[in-house]
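Listing S7. Sequence submitted for prediction.
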Amino acid sequence: MSFALGQRWISDTESDLGLGTVVAIEGRMVTVLFPATGETRLFAIQEAPLTRVVFNPGDEITSHEGWRMTISEVEEQNGLLTYHGSKQEDGEAVSLRETLLDHQIRFNKPQDRLFAGQIDRMEYFVTRYLCQQQRHAMQQNSLRALQGPRAGLIPHQLYIANEVGQRHAPRVLLADEVGLGKTIEAGHIIHQQLLSGRVERVLILVPENLQHQWLVEMLRRFNLRFALFDEERCIEAYADSDNPFDTEQLVICSLDLLRKKKRFEQALDANWDLLVVDEAHHLEWSEDKPSRAYQIVEELAEEVPGVLLLTATPDQLGHQSHFARLRLLDSDRFYDYEAFLKEEQEYQPVADAAEALLEQRTLTEAENAALVALLPAQDISAPLAAIAAGDNVARAKLLKELLDRHGTGRMLFRNTRAGVKGFTARQLHRHEVELPSQYATAVKVSNMFGGAKTTEQQIINNLYPEKLYQQFEGDKGGSSWWQFDSRVNWLLEFLKANRSKKVLVIASQANTALQLEEALRTREGIQAGVFHEGMSILERDKTAAYFAQSEGGAQVMICSEIGSEGRNFQFAHQLVMFDLPQNPDLLEQRIGRLDRIGQTQDVQIHVPYIKDSAQQHLLDWFDRGMDAFEHNCQGGHLLYDEFGEQLISVLAGNIDGLDPLIEQTAARAAEHKAALEAGRDRLLEINSNGGDQAQELVAQLQKADDDTDFISFMLKLWDVIGVHQDDRGENAVVLRPTEQMLYPSYPGLPEDGCSITFDRDTALSRDDFQFITPAHPMVAAGIDLITSSETGCTGVSLLKNKALPAGTIFLELIYVAEAIAPAEVQIGRFLPPTPIRMLMDKTGKDLGKNIDFHSFNNQLVPINRHVGSKLVSASQAVLHPLIAAAEGQVAQQLAELVGAAEQKMNDELGAELERMQALKAVNPNIRDSELDAIREQMSMVKAHLNRAQIQLDAIRLIVVTPQ
């Protein structure tokens, strides 16, 4: 390198410093001042990462005084350059020494960086183009939001998520039975609404005991970081805002928090886009006296555009409360209960006709006549003839049109276990054990000296004698109960006899779970994972992963009651309930950790209990009274509400009341079951499970999961960025940041690294793995790191080809066509950032459409940056006209892209608008706001498409060289 005082250079490693000036040359060192930032750098002359700034005729430059000139001639004298040309403002002939160039000049345009000699490595150029292609594909992928979550590909869940998640301001009631995945459906919808830009602010209201479950589910499954709000958090938030709810976009809180007038008013003023309410059946309502909880949700629902209500309670066990929930979704539509009942009766003929179409048989004349009567606005003779000829496509289309007439089918979704296949059986195993003498002594002493006890204390002592013994034992022992407890003895023998089987053990208290782990480890050397509320999310993930490992993992997972919330262990099928909860809903939640879709074997439920104790009485009530172990108990909470006081009396010691209690409970449970079956809304179930459409979604997502090109892209991207990758086998890769990364940090990648997998089954069994799909935040973050920086926007490569004369030049240009619009416009659905590749020969002809990028790139070889810079300088006279020619040609391609995008918008949104308008004529659940939203979106998309622009994103010079 040859340096002279006053020369202008730029730093190859710190291009943001701007234009530098050589201010000192001493021996083997050169000092460069960067006036724009006030920084000074000292470099070794022979190894300085600097590039000489030399402009050429035709270039536009800016003086330190701000005026601009177009260069016509460049003069060099004593190592310094003087540029001659004309002012752009008035055409005056001027000269400008390089020392007087604007210090702020930054070579961020690809052509500027290329001519300034800032040439990137060949693999960076390739990676940048692949990132632009991947970003384009991601925004065009309508199923990306469904593919992203860590969830099984369950047809009815995907159908509901796809149907509701794409609506404007959805207002629906999700009423699937326990175990069918309402929380996952809601998460899918939230995820899809956020990813599409339809919503930004979400409020989730849940019972206090479910807050943590929702927090974990949203994070683990959907990569959504919600904030948990309680009174303490609200007080802390005052430091940032007068309204605590304005400090976060995604919030989970309990309904109890909003019972405080001030908190409710703040939540009401927070401008939410979507409201989600779990356990909505607890919102009690009557025309005369709605509950405070109902009023809170009602006022919020009037202000918030989108509302999701979740409940597992069927309407047959409380039709008026079912009407009240629908009333929250649309008070104008559901204004009168009697009118609602009358309207529902009118849908029976629709249900009968739908059943006939579903049975895949020849329709009778009476059934054909009924269909004609139900669809009077159209001539269905042709579809009926096609169905008679065995055309199942016509059958499915006619069924869809029929279902559109169902009154609440658009805003209410309910799937039942009877209608959804995939559940295995549940088998109860009762294990009777004797009362240890130590417990008997503790009870006697407690009765002698304990004084009067509350009913609640009496029940706790009777159901959980280990707690009483620990109180009796005091500080001197603490946890010796497990050394003699007959249930622990049974558990140890059971685990030894089933060493090859994964066993989930659930106890009510964290302390009990911890001490059981100590018992297993101390007495028999059995390694077990422990899962309780005192652990962090990361600790729970690691413990769950330890249990999930097929080799070297824990045989046993011991959970406190929280272990029955939010975690699914369907890879195991042995469940031990060390004790029992009093609430049947909690019992079902426990069983539901194993009894889920995806379980491949019958669930074996083991309950050890002390003979003739409250434990046995509670077991008998659940088993003989409710049949709650071997069958899903619908309406269990209603039975508990009705017979709870009698149960408490029995558990407190009134044994005489046990048999009447079981008899009455069984009779009422049978009534509920009969009412459920008689009132089962098969039409609603047909409308909720998605049928063939749901199966097609599953097939498409399975195909997307098998996309090896995406996996190859991500591994290459991480390699280029400098992320260390350690292949651990079993579909697992460990990622760690390194000091050699191109960027200071990688958003979403922890400092200590993380384990990732591209395999859905692995992700479902390993909570400690990140599940990488095109929707994962780390994918977008990696692409943004490349495309938002200058990495890879220039390149020079050699083409070894005997068929071409040495020295032949090609110029490869990557343009990006883009229309910038607010997220809710969803412009990316029609015109995402679109890379346009052009390969110009020396005559200005574009060869890009005929020569594939990858096949062409495979023939290229990299070149030293300094040699590449010389090739660029020598070729400038040819390159400037080629760039100008490319800009003229790419403008036409932009016009074609915009036209195609507008046509796609008209086809898709226009068809949707027509469908919704036709549907509104037969189904009153279509809101005017939904139609208005589609019209507004069409108008906004068109307006922003007309402002679409194109810019050069990357440029590469290719020079032919002899073989």
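Caption to Listing S7: primary sequence and predicted structure tokens for the chain studied. Residues 794-961 form one domain. The chain has a mean pLDDT of 87.
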